[in-house]
Amino acid sequence: MRDENGSFIACQTVTKLGILSVKEVEAFGLLEALQWIRCMGWFNVVVEMDAKSVVDVVLESRFDASELGLSVAECRSLNFPSICS
Hints:
The protein is built from four helices and no strands. It has helices spanning 22-40, 52-59, 67-77, 81-84. It has 85 residues and is an all-alpha fold. It starts with 21 loop residues before the first helix and ends with a helix. The model has no long low-confidence stretch (mean pLDDT 81). It is globular, with a radius of gyration of 13 Å. The longest helix has 19 residues, at 22-40.
């Protein structure tokens, strides 16, 4: 996590056991980051990702029962305005 000046303020590491695709791991990482942001009580946070395919799935409205889809659905359930609109 960086502040508005780009200075380091915090980080988190999470592990998950299993064999997952790159997209599933990226979605899981996004979910963990959003949960952490909410837990820390931070607002006005910009999340940057280089996984366009995951961003596309997050912005779609369809339901997907895969591991990727379930992580994305959980991201949406956190009700962050830019994800939910």
